[in-house]
UniProtKB/TrEMBL annotation:
Catalytic activity, reaction form: GTP + H2O = GDP + phosphate + H(+)
Known EC number: 3.6.5.4
Assembly information from the UniProt record: Part of the signal recognition particle protein translocation system, which is composed of SRP and FtsY.
SUPFAM superfamilies hit by this protein: P-loop containing nucleoside triphosphate hydrolases, Signal peptide-binding domain
Name of this chain's protein: Signal recognition particle protein
Length: 439
């Protein structure tokens, strides 16, 4: 689970409000105190926390909230909206050049995950029918060039290099010619990194930027370094005019400080987040609203669907999306859902994106290839079509027969029905929210 600590402490702070019919100013104060502590513990910048809490508090004690039927839920909604806003509001995409190739320069400190990110980007562009070329312009570390070749082979994207004896500006210029020769429409430039910010590096990067006029200068920062990542971003942005941030290692034990702070402090949008150390691990386009909803435990149906779209044929995924969002989510859909989920890989990650699933007890221990999953499938298969559409039809004797038919117990059947009900409830809530928040 991404940003697990922050997520659970915020949910705890807000959970108390959710159930309340009426909110006193005291309730709000208390919750805001806990929200503040949760954010500080996640290493969010102090000033950012102060402003954030002040905004939420002001809105939460407002008349509209007090008069609404579900004041607690309204406060959760306000926190969701403000979190989304804090992280940039809407998705910020890569700008494409009117006349190809689109040049994208990746910069960042050594170890931040630059090379991994560049390979993941290349893979994603290739999968979206682009023809990327990687240019190796880190002339200080021969190993960096080798690494880029290795990753390039893995993602089946060509790599251009000129060894380590030319200057980076020349390499990039030649790289551009090579791109033209190959008909590449995107040039991804890997630049040198250092362990710390250093004047020589900054000057070199400035020169490269001036020479190739890239559409994008993407800075890779390591989410696990928290506020350090924010400082790094500030410095790079001042010198280079960074156009977007790639926040790597958000899957690690990142506390969230960087994700929640960097946009506000630098003004630079986060464009991607890295969620795995392997090149086929996800580098996801960053959606502030989705991360906010993940943090608040509203699940992340949309990211799941997007991943599904990559793995399955579009029609099926589209259909699934519509059904998930509609109120008629049935046992058929439930079955289809976990059948598809099983094909999605890293299953523990995927499962936790499904609304409600992350709250289910023992979810950490579920092994998805295990028999339980097969059992759930068998149980649904033993129901009649009418029962799948209307579970209420299953009385005790039908449940017994279904258990027999699927080689399971009545308890298993009941448990499945209960899980289905919970999921259905969540689906309803999420789709209701989607409408309210204008998705
Ligand atoms: P560079 O020096 O900036 O080019 O960094 P690398 O791309 O070589 O990455 C440094 C280390 O971080 C490697 O061990 C990567 O596998 C790891 N890494 C990079 N991105 C991610 C990520 O998104 N998640 C995790 N868990 N590890 C990552």
């Amino acid at each position: 689970q991404v940003l697990e600590g922050l997520s659970s402490s915020l949910q705890k702070a807000l959970g108390k409000l959710r159930s309340k019919g009426k909110l006193t100013e005291n309730d709000v104060q208390e919750a805001m105190r806990e929200v503040r502590l949760a954010l500080l513990a996640a290493d969010v910048n102090v000033k950012v926390v102060r402003d954030f809490v002040a905004r939420v508090r002001e809105r939460a004690v407002g008349q509209d909230v007090q008069k609404s039927l579900t004041p607690g839920q309204q406060v959760v909604k306000i926190v969701y909206e403000e979190l989304t806003e804090l992280m940039g509001g809407t998705q910020s995409r890569i700008q494409m050049a009117a006349k190809p190739p689109t040049v994208i320069m990746l910069v960042g400190l050594q170890g931040a995950g630059k090379t991994t990110a560049i390979a993941k980007l290349a893979l994603s562009f290739r999968q979206h029918q682009h023809r990327p070329l990687l240019v190796a312009a880190d002339v200080y570390r021969p190993a960096a060039i080798d690494q880029l070749h290795v990753l390039g082979r893995q993602v089946e994207v060509p790599v251009f290099d000129m060894g380590t004896s030319h200057n980076p500006v020349d390499i990039v210029r030649n790289g551009m010619q090579e791109a033209e020769r190959q008909g590449a429409d995107i040039v991804l430039v890997d630049t040198a990194g250092r362990l710390h910010i250093d004047e020589g590096l900054m000057t070199e990067l400035e020169d490269m930027k001036a020479a190739i006029q890239p559409m994008e200068v993407l800075l890779v920062v390591d989410a696990m370094t928290g506020q350090d990542a924010v400082h790094v971003a500030e410095t790079f942005h001042e010198r280079l005019g960074v156009t977007g941030i790639i926040l790597s290692k958000l899957d690690g034990d990142a506390r969230g400080g960087a994700a929640l702070t960097v946009r506000q402090v630098t003004g630079c949008p986060i464009k991607y987040v890295g969620l795995g150390e392997k090149v086929d691990g996800p580098l996801e386009p960053f959606h502030p609203d989705r991360l906010a909803s993940r943090i608040l435990g509203m699940g992340d149906v949309l990211s799941l669907i997007e991943r599904a779209q990559e793995k399955f044929d579009m029609d099926k995924a589209q259909e699934m999306e519509e059904r998930m969002r509609s109120a008629n989510f049935s046992l058929n859909d439930f079955q289809e859902m976990f059948r598809q989920v099983r094909n999605l890989g890293p299953l523990d990650q995927v499962l936790k994106m499904i609304p409600g699933m992350n709250k289910m007890k023992g979810i950490e221990n579920v092994d998805l290839n295990d028999k339980r999953f097969v059992r759930m499938d068998a149980i649904i298969s033993s129901m009649t079509e009418a029962e799948r559409l209307d579970p209420k039809l299953m009385n005790a004797s039908r449940r017994r027969r279904i258990a027999n038919g699927s080689g399971t117990t009545v308890r298993d059947v009941n448990q499945l029905l209960k899980q289905f009900e919970q999921t259905q409830e969540m689906m309803k809530r999420v789709s209701g929210m989607g409408k309210k928040f204008g998705r």
